[in-house]
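Re: coenzyme A structure - here you go.
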Amino acid sequence: MIRTATPEDAAFVSAVGVASGMFSADDTSVTDGMMVAYFAGNQDAGHVCFIDELEGASECVAMAYVEPVRATEGTCELLMIAVDPRYQGQNRGTSLVRYVEDWLVRRGQRLLLVQTSGEDSYARTRAFYVKLDYEPAARVADYYAPNVDMVMFRKALTVPLST
Ligand SMILES: CC(C)(COP(=O)(O)OP(=O)(O)OC[C@H]1O[C@@H](n2cnc3c(N)ncnc32)[C@H](O)[C@@H]1OP(=O)(O)O)[C@@H](O)C(=O)NCCC(=O)NCCS
């Protein structure tokens, strides 16, 4: 079941960020700060944090966070997506991205961007976006650190067939 986050989910967001290898266990300041700012006002400014929870078990297994890009018309960025490693490869990430896309397009958003690393260790993550019809749009050399490039993907959002 996919739903929007409540303050009780903040700890899970940081925990899954660490468990999925995106952040180190001794520095959860990025996710901690993101969730504090979310409930302090960013939620009202159009940011949305989604939580995927096991049906009936109230166990959180994945999250995604999206925000509008300033000074654009209908462009958003998927800032973070992470699936608990025990549940990766089970279509949860795909379902979550599709849910986010659907949620955005129903609110008039038209373009979704996502940044990820160009490192070899992120090859499967890049493949994930390509499978979901994202196209590589830009590569910024040395973005995250020396020799660690950023790859930006884009997807034009279209109205779901079911509407
Ligand atoms: C990337 C991620 C969100 C994908 O979610 P998922 O639920 O594992 O993926 P799905 O089951 O929906 O789709 C599977 C496809 O995603 C890709 N994939 C990426 N990472 C994967 C992983 N750790 N395990 C399995 N598939 C993965 C593969 O292309 C796979 O297709 P394949 O089985 O044909 O190889 C998730 O694996 C994850 O949290 N990874 C670590 C954190 C991360 O990289 N986040 C994105 C940062 S920009």
